[in-house]
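2024-03-11 09:14:02 INFO queue: dequeued item DNA polymerase III subunit delta', len=326
2024-03-11 09:14:02 INFO validating residues
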Amino acid sequence: MYPWLTQPLAQLTRLIVDQQLGHALLLKGIDGLGKRELAQHLAKALLCQHTGVDINATASVPCGHCHSCQLVAAGSHSDLHLISTDQRSISVDTIRQLTQILSESAQLGQGKVAVIEQAEKMTEAAANALLKTLEEPAGQSSIVLVSSQPERLLPTIHSRCQPWLIPVPDSAQVLHWLAEQGVATDNAATNITALNVNQGSPLNTRHYLAEGVDQRRRELLQQCAQLRREPQLLNTVQTGLLAQPVHIVWLQLLLQDALQLSLGLSTAQLRLADSEAVCRDMSELGTAKLTHMLDELMQWRRRLQPTVGRPVNAGLQLTQWLTHLT
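2024-03-11 09:14:37 INFO prediction written
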């Protein structure tokens, strides 16, 4: 288990052993904190045949040795159900099938556990189909919802779940962990910038450093700044920004730093400390324009997130936004 999850794991395990954990738990926090691993560990604890045997032995739950724990480790436990998708949404049929399974008797007698990853992807119909099960689960059923964007969940889902926020860990702890992972660079400023770029997410920062994404970020943001003088870069910039959702986050951080500089504020708090020259270049757009561009960019990002309705033409809308720079 990741070091920043040690405390929440201990607290949640204590609740399981004391039988005080609600039947519906919502694990929430930014992407890249390890919420999936935490949810699966809790599912293992809920299904462990030794849970509740010794109320003082939280360290042994899950035990890792009983038949149930071995089945979970092998990915073949008949009473553990994982909902995960790479698709745009989680359909109502998927949730209806899950609720039907949860209404049936547990095969191993320890109850049933369902983990729904990226719960915010549930369509409105799917979320509504889950409400009754959340409110009145059959038998010993437990449901763990995992979400990096809990604000997109229906209020009725929130009201039926026990919320548990996984906080962003302390930067010093993450930087130490990254060094242990062998991905931290010798340049402290680069490591801190990488952490800022990934919004403090340890796992995303590890991937970012390990894959050498930092150089791509520098190139793309430099092209964004050059676009004002070289409009022929429009297609290149558009393609680069649309390649990964995080690339838009990079652009947002660039604009925020540029706005800070245009306001005459200190450079000490720049999120992109290693890209000060580019930030200063962008700051020449002026406070009013940068503020307007940031507002429009964040609205555009929100429009890209709905799980229902007609998909947004991201390319067209981004092209329109980029005209601010040409």
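2024-03-11 09:14:37 INFO annotate: The two ends are 48 Å apart (CA to CA).
2024-03-11 09:14:38 INFO item closed
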